[in-house]
Design goal:
With about 425 residues, this protein is α/β, with parallel strands linked by helices. It is built from 14 helices and 21 strands. Strands 3-17-18-16-15-19-20-21 form an 8-stranded mixed sheet. Bound molecules: thymidine-5'-phosphate.
């Protein structure tokens, strides 16, 4: 039988063994492994959640790698639930169409294409689209929405078979998946095989500088194996003869960088900033010094203390508290803070796959948004704080009736 997880032996980008632990969030269950109500009595496994810093290339990475089949063969997260993310995808496809010399039906491939949210936008712009998605449930949804999707993990074999059948891709997109990948070298080999010489490889990853600056420690969970700065990314690309042509910064998901890479060393885009500008910024921000990272654990502890004290006080004052967004990061936060259903009565989420399940660890029930009207909580803890604006707009009624929001990150605050 395959091991459930393995320990990280060396840095996945540069191979260095100079790895230093600076954050320990304890043992937590897998953040997207929601529990069916019928299994409420079953115990779940918890795994160490620790972050190491590579002194050579500055990549932060988890100390363990959970078997990807366990994490990604069924996936309850649907990209298209958030309107802000759908708009973000539309902007990305529009920009991609602008930067490539688009022939009739240029091929756009999305790696970890989820429910086809991004490819819908490429399709609108006359790209031929192919999704590659390991989660069977998501591949099925995408197919039913007219997005051709290959149900498998990305690797060089997937690249070869797509290339043989459809030719080279003008665009290969990988949004919010790079951090999930253990073997980044094999991933890049696949991209090299499939990408057209004049095409672009577009990666979006949460920017680790922003995680540090805003105490987003809750975005650390077992799916996120790596936490990227531009420096290690550039090192990876150089190793595979890719050059960074431009980098843009977006607020989505608490701070994201979109990195355009090309096989051509001379490719440069007028959009965004250069890799060198980012490297200077990271150096100035002391992102290449382990000392910078030591404050993350103490900041996480401060947030935990303040959040737990706030919730316990409200509880004592007989205030009813619910949460919004059964996000993976919400589960890191709840479990790290030891918050359960005696404090937060239920979690609202608009994803049908998540409703009528229990959140891992905390065992708080996930329900649809109708419960806000039915149960009339006094406070909503925004676990998906990255979509605070969108969620607050959706819950205007709750707010107009005196409901308040608790935003946990970057610092605990209450909004009337
Ligand atoms: P994420 O922060 O990892 O993208 O997760 C956000 C979660 O919040 C996800 O489970 C979907 C949920 N959500 C809603 O239920 N309604 C909404 O309007 C938004 C924006 C998110």
């Amino acid at each position: 039988m395959k091991e459930v997880y393995k320990s990280l032996k060396e840095c996945r980008i540069c191979g260095s063994k100079n790895l230093y632990k600076y954050l320990d969030l304890g043992k937590t269950p897998l953040a997207n492994h929601l529990i069916e109500l019928k299994n409420a009595d079953k115990k779940e496994d918890a795994f160490p959640l620790e972050v190491l810093y590579c002194k050579n290339c500055s990549l932060s990475q988890l100390s363990i790698v959970v078997e990807p089949e366990i994490l990604f063969s069924y996936y309850p997260y649907r990209s298209s639930v958030s309107k802000s993310f759908r708009e973000h995808c539309a902007e990305m496809a529009a920009k991609a169409a602008e930067i490539i010399e688009m022939n009739e039906n240029g091929l756009a491939v999305d790696i970890a294409s989820n429910d086809g949210c991004l490819l819908q936008e490429f399709k609108k712009r006359n790209f031929k689209t192919i999704g590659v998605e390991p989660a069977k449930n998501l591949a099925k949804i995408a197919e039913s929405n007219g997005i051709e999707t290959i149900n498998r993990f990305w690797d060089s074999e997937a690249a070869k078979s797509i290339s043989a059948k459809y030719g080279k891709a003008k665009i290969i997109a990988a949004t919010n998946v790079f951090a999930h990948v253990d073997d980044l070298n094999e991933f890049m080999e696949g991209v090299k095989i499939l990408l057209d010489n004049s095409g672009f490889f577009i990666v979006e990853v949460p920017y680790f500088h922003d995680l540090m600056a805003n105490n987003e420690f809750d975005t650390i969970y077992h799916e996120h194996l790596s936490y990227f700065l531009v420096k290690p990314l550039q090192q990876l690309y150089k190793k595979h003869n890719f050059a960074i042509a431009g980098i843009e910064k977006y607020p989505i998901h608490g701070g994201t960088i979109r990195v355009y890479a090309s096989k051509s060393p001379k490719a440069s885009l007028s959009t965004g900033r250069s890799a060198n500008e980012f490297l200077d910024f990271e150096r100035k921000e002391k992102m290449y010094m382990i000392e910078t990272y030591q404050k993350l654990e103490s900041n996480a502890k401060k947030i935990k203390k303040k959040l737990v004290e706030t919730l316990i006080k409200l509880n004592k004052d007989n205030k009813k508290i619910a949460a919004y967004g059964a996000s993976a990061k919400g589960n890191t936060l709840l479990n790290y803070c030891g918050i359960g259903s005696s404090i937060v009565e239920f979690i609202v989420d608009d994803t049908p796959e998540k409703q009528n399940h229990l959140a891992p660890g905390s065992r708080i029930k996930i329900v649809d948004s109708g419960f806000i009207e039915k149960e009339k909580p006094d406070y909503l803890l925004l676990l998906a704080w990255n979509f605070a604006k969108e969620i607050m707009k959706k819950t205007e009624n709750f707010r107009n009736n005196g409901g308040k929001y608790i935003i946990p990150i970057p610092d605990v605050r209450i909004i009337q």
